[in-house]
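Service request form, structural biology core

Requester: graduate student, group of Dr. S.
Request type: structure prediction, single chain
Budget code: on file
Notes: please return the result as structure tokens.

Sequence provided:
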Amino acid sequence: MKAMTLRDGSFRLEEITDPTPGPGQILTRPLACGVCGSDLHARDHAGHLCDLLHRAGFRGFMDPGQPVVMGHEFCCEVLEGDGRFDRGQRVVALPFIAGANGVELIGYSNHFNGAFAERMLLQTSAAFAVPDHVETEAAALTEPLSVAVHAVEQSGADANCAFAVLGCGPVGLFVIARLRALGLGPILAIEPNPARRAMAERMGADTVISPGEQSGESWWNDLGLPLGLSDAMAQAPELRKRQRAILFDCVGKPGMLMAIAQGAPIGATIVVIGTCMETDAIEPAFMLQKSLRVQFVFAYTPTDFADAFAMICADASRLDPLITGHVGLAGVEQAFAALSGGGSDVKVLVTPQ
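Core staff response, request fulfilled:
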């Protein structure tokens, strides 16, 4: 079968051996698969990313010196039924599969290929049948939406909170969509790219600004959530329209965490989703003075994945605007280049067939 393999930072369209399902696995045909920001990191910083995962205790990650077929944001068609799923049925699944070496991450495994290929294996117990009313492309957004579902759930968001989303790439836009699906707000979106600012409005942000605009401070002040310690101490309780601020860092660049802390209201929670691949400096005493809480979140749980899938099934068209491009297997390199360039594309889908 044809597959786009990655080795030593370079893609090659190659013929590889068709996978054979083992116990508890199903053979599928990938129909659509998104290109993830983590894929960009894996291509450009594979050695560093592998070192991080290994130091964090995850053993089922790829050896970047060996070929790997990426693609973990997928919707597939079942080719061989197993009693739970019938041939021809569409499915989505958590990208984890049990092999001889334990649990491995599909798309970052040297043993199990991802969806940038004509065939792939899935763990039956991790799969969900896609209803007829849900388009394949919408279903393929379940995995990236799960990251946002997890981040919002971990933040403790409720109706007493106001929100800021910094960085309106795919993760930030999914966070905005998730907050709106839960009926939460108001939401401030901060993004330098005009096209992505427009997309943030479509996803439900109340106010959208560029980084550095003074209107951001005014927005918080109007909610009774001042940025300065003296102003917060003088704030009359009855003027607080929201009790707590939650800011989602969806950028992941050096200096970003301190910049967010500077512009965060007193007592805010900063939820870090964006992956900064470099060592970064923070000033703990400053964060202490502002009583800031910083929470790092990674991936999602099976419950988060199920909740993301339920959100898509309930309103399958909500996220359609986020799909901004399509390529075949031969266009994977082109898609990576476009997304790395920081243009207007949000979610590019690979259709292997």
